[in-house]
Amino acid sequence: MPTPTVRSIRLLPDGTPLQNRLLAALPARDYARLLEHLHMNIGVTGRTLQQQGTPVTDVYFPNGGVFSVTNEMRDGALVEVATVGREGMLGIAVFLGDYSGAGRTFQQVPDGPFPSMSASRFVKESTTPGPFRDVVALYAQANLLQIMQCTACNALHSVKQRCCRWLLETQDRVGSPEFLLKQQFLAIMLGVQRPTVTLVMRALQDRGLITTKYGRIRVLKRRMLEKGSCECYEVIRAHFQRLGLLRPSGTRRQSASSYGRPTSRARRRSEESSESSSRRSTR
Known about the structure:
By secondary structure, this protein is of the alpha+beta class. The protein contains eleven helices and ten strands. It has a four-stranded antiparallel β-sheet with strand order 2-6-4-5. It has a three-stranded antiparallel β-sheet with strand order 1-7-3. Strands 8-10-9 form a three-stranded antiparallel β-sheet.
């Protein structure tokens, strides 16, 4: 009787199961090499990881939760320009040659510890031809498409639509219908005043779509939330799916689990790149 194949679970330096999509998409030997250069960080809501205009010393690979990259105005006002979860990384500008923080980056929704790598090591690894560079390049493209879509969304869609989209994306990244999120932070994400967020959240709660209490939000009717969202939620997901960074789901209701696993397309690209690098090195 054949023995069933058991797929080993990859672990981070502290023994935490790996959930970050970019690292999980790497071939085993490439991940083993990078593992030696990963350092674990404790998630603290609101703690600044990268500051606008200061040198980037470390890049981060979220293993859960939600992180925000914001742009700070001269009067101190913050507006979100990118949202990152376990599908990506923080500090992608370093890959493009910019070693200065483009905005303030901090954690919005906590969900356990997460790994980081020094910027110098990241540059060395990501400039070397191979699976890691290929996966990071794919994410750089997806991140740009996401920012472009969000820019259009902020200009054209209502606060209610954008709030629904943000709640859906947060549930996807956390993998749970319940998560911690302060309305103060949600106001920053949506670029509005806190009273406006209070009114929108109250309207969603009155319709039975969500419940909120003491900074904890629970999604009750996801499909209704999807109907209340703008087209940007599906457009952004489609970009990540097309690039192989997000596993297509059979139904929308399965979407929350798809952020935790690398797609076969992304993994196949990494393995093909690894084999190509091996052939070049043996010549």
